[in-house]
Amino acid sequence: MPTPPVDLGPVLPELILVGVGVVLLLVGVAVRRATPTTLVLFSLGGVAAAAAATLQLWDWDAAPTVLADAIATDRFGVVVRLILLGVAAIGLVLGHHYFERSGEGKAEFYPLMLFATAGMMLFAVSADLVTAFLALEILSLSLYVLTGFSTRLGSVEGAMKYFLLGSFSSAFFLFGIAMAYGASGSTRLPAIADALAGRTGSVALAVTAMGLLAVGFAFKVSAVPFHMWTPDVYQGAPTAVTGFMSAGTKVAAFAAFMRVFNISFQPITWDWQPIVWALAAVSIVAGSVLAIAQTDIKRLLAYSSISHAGFVLLGLTAAGEDGIGAALFYLVAYAATVIGAFGVVMVVSARGERHTSLSAYAGLARRSPVAAGLLTLFLLSLAGIPPTAGFVAKVAVFRAATEAGYWFLVLIGVLASVVAAFVYLRVIVLMFMREPEEDTRPDESWLPRVALAVPAVLVVVFGVFPGLIVGFLERAAVLRW
Amino acid sequence: MPWLTVVIFLPLVGIPVLALWTRASDAQARMVALVVALATFLVALGVLGAFDPSVAGYQLVEHAEWLPSAGLSYLVGVDGFNIWLVVLTAFMTPVAIASSWGVSHRVRLFMALTLLLETAIVGSFLALDLLLFFVFFEAILVPMFLVIGMWGSARRVYASLKFFLYTMAGSAFLLLAIVYLWFQTSQQLAHASFDIRQVERLSLATTTQRWLFLAFFIAFAVKVPIFPLHTWLPDAHTEAPTNGSIVLAALLLKAGPYGLLRFNLDLFPEASRYFADAIGILAVVGIVYGALVAMMQTDVKRLVAYSSVSHMGFVILGIFTFTMQGTSGAVMQMVNHGLSTGLLFFVIGVLYERTHTRDLSEMGGLATVTPWIAVAFLVATLSSIGLPGLNNFVGEFLVILGSFGADRVLGALAVTGVVLAAIYMLWAYQRAFQGPGAERHRGLVDLLPREVAVVVPVVAVMLVLGVFPNLVLDRINPSSAGVVAWVRSVDVDQAGLPGGLRAQLPPPDDADVSAVAEGGP
């Protein structure tokens, strides 16, 4: 049996992250004097090295897939990896600060973040369903542990819930892979597409596979009706982890979603578009409406993330390049915004997780103008008010969906935006127009503020000059296979 | 120099100054904002000077690629419709800033938000790219929301949320329609584009055009506001601080009729004619209803707010007559309403700072205590009710003339609005400034030099516009003639549907408006 050629270049970023992670794991055990500061610096170094390795792949022009067709080498993968590495860098800094502040710091935090990031990146570039499943498990297992990393009861409960429901969805995903294999005789994405296009595979099995995989993806991106875990897990997890998880998982899972559906199931696009349509509509509406009733900022942002999953799906209804380009921009904007928002929540909640109820935000503008200003910016971006990145992103997905002829879905989207705006405005009202109820001082340290300046600047710059990245995203919106 | 861009963004220069100068005293913060706003006004005057009144189309157009792949461009320009609104905005913003000398908490933020508002409002008047317009139009909301919600009176949070959600709900449809039009340009034209000059070349099916018209209309009707979408306005105007009331009434409301004139008539001429009757009726209902409700008010700010509903009804009525007089009169009326209502709110603010009440029943006899405040209020009142020789007369007269030409019944009903305005405004003056009650207000300070410095220029402009309306009309008329001819060149699609009364209109007569204007009041 001939062995396939081994070309590790396209997986170098993941190898670097995993390598640094393993080393840090050993260092944490063996070197007693390794301070958290050293660990976070090493982790950030690993992230930077992985980013450098990723950039090398931008001009990759050899085979579209390597390692026995398991890994895709396209620019789409490059861009998604860069987004994820950015999210990881901010997540590492915020998480470092969070655990140092709460005194729950453990050396395992840094490797776990790196493993999760590597899993996310691998998920986004998998060109084979089995590789995708492995990547999914790497990222999920790391995130289960990170969710339960704090000793608070809520954290442990959230981790348990995430683990049980996550395993359930993994089973769906795995079953879908089996069906896809049954339909086409392969788990490689291009091979599945060929089999379906050539009518050599069973369409009924393929549609079943597509449905089961959609369930798996919908769970990971927290689309309704597979969103049940999201509020509890987002609320329970340490806030810094929530920020990393909400941005990173969504980006990675949507990237894989786009790849699988636009490659493997491209021949049956007419079958999956209605499913994506329905998922988008119910996610947008349910996420926006349920957010109204929330009294905890983390749960509020969790429901907001559900409705935003719907908006990305709205872009995906337009199959092909237009939809991918729009969804990529949306993911960039959303990732920057949501990690920023959770970062501010972390700053406000000070030590531990005591001050996450909305009442803690009353009069925040007086106690901490910077935190209130930043959160306002991020909330406006979530609401899609110009001139923020969130607005440009919304217009992009609306355009894509209109082009695909789904203007009714766009109507649902714009109306739900108004409902959602009310949710975010309520928080702004609390911060600027109410008197403080509790005399708590937000965290005044400089580190989280520096880390939050990055997403804040991005949200404004991408809102005012979207042209700065749209060019890259458009060149990356082509899946090679 | 790209002067239009300078007018739009010059106010923003003040924001970093206010943000970084953390140790600025309140007086210094006000001065920063005032200086920036006055500088913007000077530039706006420069633009007015560079404006060529003989040209009907867009002038001083500035164009830059913004997001070429999506057809999004930075495109601004002036014509007869927006030139005066820009000058009005630049003129009233310093007034609004001067009116907030009494604001004493978080002054820097307040001033920064006022400047931000100016940029957003001027930007939405000047944008000729649909999405750019939408960006500015939506950007108005947040600073206005904060101004009402943070510095307003008792029910400010309710009022600010109501303002935001009403407006945003309206503009949701606008965004949908804009995206749809963009999609049509990508299908029909060489490039996808949001450029209004490209979008107006689209050929749209009659039904599509009418739906799109309605989507645009709802967004602007909320802003105007057109009855029955007006309910946010009394709350917002009443609860806002003086500064906010001035910006809302004098400037923000103008974005609505301006949008109708710029986009609805231009892009959907058939639908405009089709819906003209219905909108004309709504406008007249607004005129009469606003006036009647204003009569019943005891809160003087609420009274002026409802009078705005009535006055804006005239503007809408004028726009949808599709006559030269109606259109030019409507634009004139927008400017005039901005001046007179702005001055009214300013004087009410001055009064409130002294008496701490807005309730007419708690006033009375103020004319003997504060005669100069009374004079200022009286001038604004007389202007507001359309006294010949003051600015409002010309606009209202032209609108009524135009509406008689189009539909006598509506014209006749609109006239009652003028009569009712005289009743509620003069009655308000009487209750506040005459009669008994002077002893209660003994010791109140009359107009301060700072306040005189605001009132005098506004009154001077009112007089100038009242006596020489052609200064304004000459620059509006070419654009009015253009849009009237354009809308009339399209017939209502009769296929199975009853055409509007306006379908039988005679062709426009260019001579009529100048004859009226030269005849003068």
Task: Tell me what the structure shows.
The complex is a heterodimer of chains A (481) and B (521). Helices cover 75% and strands 1% of the residues of chain A. Chain A has 19 helices and two strands. Chain A has a two-stranded antiparallel ribbon with strand order 1-2. In chain A, a hairpin with a 4-residue loop joins β1 and β2. In chain A, α3 packs parallel to α13, α6 packs across α7 and α13 runs antiparallel to α16. The model of chain A has no long low-confidence stretch (mean pLDDT 89). Chain B has 521 residues and is mainly alpha-helical. Helices cover 71% and strands 3% of the residues of chain B. Chain B has a two-stranded antiparallel sheet with strand order 1-2. In chain B, a hairpin with a 4-residue loop joins β1 and β2. The longest helix of chain B has 33 residues. Chain B is globular. In chain B, 62% of the residues are buried. The C terminus of chain B is likely disordered.
